[in-house]
Amino acid sequence: MSESSLLQCQKLSKTFPVKNRFFGKKLTLKAVDAVSFTLDKGECLGLVGESGCGKSTLGRMACGLLAPSQGEVRLFGKPLPLANAQSWAAGRLQMIFQDPFSSLNPRMTVAASVAEPLAARGVSRTERLQAAEEMLALVGLAGVGKRYPHEFSGGQRQRIAVARALMTRPEVIVCDEPVSALDASVQAQILNLLCDMQEQFAPAYLFISHDLNVVGFMCQRIMVMYLGRLLEDGPRDELFAHAAHPYTQALLSASQGSKEQAERALLQGDLPSPLHPPKGCVFHPRCPRAEEICLRQAPTWRTLGQNWRVRCHFAQS
Ligand SMILES: Nc1ncnc2c1ncn2[C@@H]1O[C@H](COP(=O)(O)OP(=O)(O)OP(=O)(O)O)[C@@H](O)[C@H]1O
Ligand code: SF4
Ligand SMILES: [Mg+2]
């Protein structure tokens, strides 16, 4: 564990029991499979991958909202309890969602919603509302505290969600697709706001997105996820210049090329079901470089450079 390690996720797995739609048979879906990583103080760490690969499940476990089936999360080296207002970790981790409505009560004024995380800290109502108004001004929404969520645009609601997340001055904020529902022009404003707020309050971000361009804009380090596993994890500049994993390469060409190129690059075969992940390397059915060994043996991590690791039999440093 490095000096600046804030959050450590150790071999986190999450399984969900699901029923087969046609036969009613009980099955187990492994949404996250033995994922380990650390988040350093003040860092912005990206998590990218296609829909359904387990990003939100991992994010919710990382901030204590969901209990892992296996593995452990540590904050400052201590096991993180599940989110609860009385725990020592309360307020130190926050989450921002794609849909800000999920954290804003439509019947509460926005100042009351923003102020809510301070209630458990014994701050008086008047002081809470005052602090909420000040935070709203910092995110560019001065004097709006008495209004209700439906009076705001999607971008403004996300500003309110950012203000709410910052109220307890958390050390970690998990941002789960915070701009995916917004128009491109508004996306850039919210990303800039998140950068400004990081400069001001220094939280570490675990920044989740299916869009490599967005993650590349925000994060110095990027983890690539596929079918519940991490396949590559490295510094943004290394990954963008010479990604080592064929899946990262496919994501990159998808994010850089035209829509048609993107589809050609990614759609070599369908995304397998997480209920029946492929044996060997999970990416082998879609990998242009797959060889016989890939079908029977899962690759282990290889180190390519400082803070750069990849899971592919043929990755070379
Ligand atoms: N409560 C649940 N019960 C059963 N299956 C679940 C549950 N939550 C998630 N899953 C399944 O776990 C897998 C991972 O889901 P998750 O929402 O973490 O993916 P994601 O990468 O965040 O996807 P998206 O980009 O669409 O948000 C999916 O196959 C999903 O259907
Ligand atoms: S291990 Fe094989 S199948 Fe997996 S990414 Fe590398 S080359 Fe492709
Ligand atoms: Mg998600």
Which small molecules are bound? adenosine-5'-triphosphate, iron/sulfur cluster, magnesium ion
Instruction: Name the average pLDDT.
Output: 93
CATH architecture of the largest domain: 3-Layer(aba) Sandwich
The helix/strand class is: alpha/beta
Number of separate domains? 2
Please identify the top-level CATH class of the largest domain.
Answer: Alpha Beta
Give the low-confidence spans: none
SSE ordering: EEEHEEEHHHEHEHEEHHHHEE
Identify the overall geometry: globular
Number of helices: 10
The fraction of residues in strands falls at: 15-25%
Short description:
The protein is α/β, with parallel strands linked by helices.
Can you walk me through this structure?
With 317 residues, the chain is α/β, with parallel strands linked by helices. It folds into two domains: 228 residues, P-loop containing nucleotide triphosphate hydrolases (Rossmann fold), CATH 3.40.50.300; 69 residues, no CATH class. The chain is built from ten helices and twelve strands. The protein has an eight-stranded mixed β-sheet, sandwiched between helices. The mean pLDDT is 93. Bound molecules: adenosine-5'-triphosphate, iron/sulfur cluster and magnesium ion. The site of iron/sulfur cluster (SF4) has 13 residues, from loops.
